[in-house]
Amino acid sequence: MNSFLLASIFALTWTLTYGFYFQTTTKAGDERKTAFEAQKSQWFGKFLAEMNEPTLPEFTKDVNVEVYRMIILPTWGNSILVRVQKHGTIYSLSSRRLDGQAGFELGKLVEAKDSELSEEDSKALQQLIQNLSFFQLAADDGVLGLDGDEWILEGVFQGKYHTVKRWCASSYNPDKRELKAFLHLCKFLVDKSSLSERPKNRGQKLI
């Protein structure tokens, strides 16, 4: 079997295994995936699979579902995830942490916590989501870097799915990039996650 065929089989297996975590779209008249969409399918999905996470695009089948998921992937730090889902007036909260350095290895799932927000915290979260206008945000603000930390926020509401990615959201010109509402929501999720480790890169807290 030649190397080209082996590579093709590997790429297909990779996509089938991890690519289903994110919906992909194409530009009008262009059937190629954008670089971001390819990255989502082939890299971010590995972390979600290791955390035993559900596939959010599947939730669009039920227009009554409202769910959001944040994942922070530092090059030199543990990946963390927080997912919230609305049930009536209350949000459930699930948090996960892998022990690897996200820029180099997945690591193992070392923390998995599930809880329910109070009525007060649920109202606060709802306000933060509204302030963000999540579904109107661009998927990518065009700021890229080789190292640092990736922040990904997914959401499903009224049968619609959206993904937003920001590189070094808390450390690279957050005011100029208008990330105040984005960071307020991320900080709230981290604060309520009850994880023993806050997201760090090179030992420095990110939020």
Short description:
With 207 residues, this protein is α+β, with helices and mostly antiparallel strands. Helix content is 29%, strand content 27%. The chain is built from four helices and eight strands, in the order ααββββαββαββ.
Question: What does this protein structure show overall?
Answer:
The protein is α+β, with helices and mostly antiparallel strands. It has one domain (54-205): Mago nashi protein. The protein has four helices and eight strands. Strand 1 (66-74) and strand 2 (80-87) form a beta hairpin. The chain is globular, with a radius of gyration of 17 Å. Residues 1-19 and 24-33 have low confidence and may be disordered.
Write down the domain tally.
Answer: 1
The unreliable regions are 1-19, 24-33
- CATH topology category name: Mago nashi protein
- Largest sheet data: 6 strands, antiparallel
What Rg is obtained from the alpha carbons, in whole angstroms? 17 Å
Assembly category = single chain
CATH top level label: Alpha Beta
Mean pLDDT: 85
What percent of residues adopt helix (DSSP H or I)? 25-40%
CATH architecture: 2-Layer Sandwich
Number of helices: 4
Write out the strand line-up for the largest beta sheet, numbering strands in chain order.
4-3-2-1-5-6
**What class do helices, strands and sheet pairing give?**
alpha+beta
Overall morphology: globular
Care to count the β-strands?
8
First and last CA, distance: 49 Å
Strand content: 25-35%
Q: Spell out the helices and strands N to C.
A: HHEEEEHEEHEE
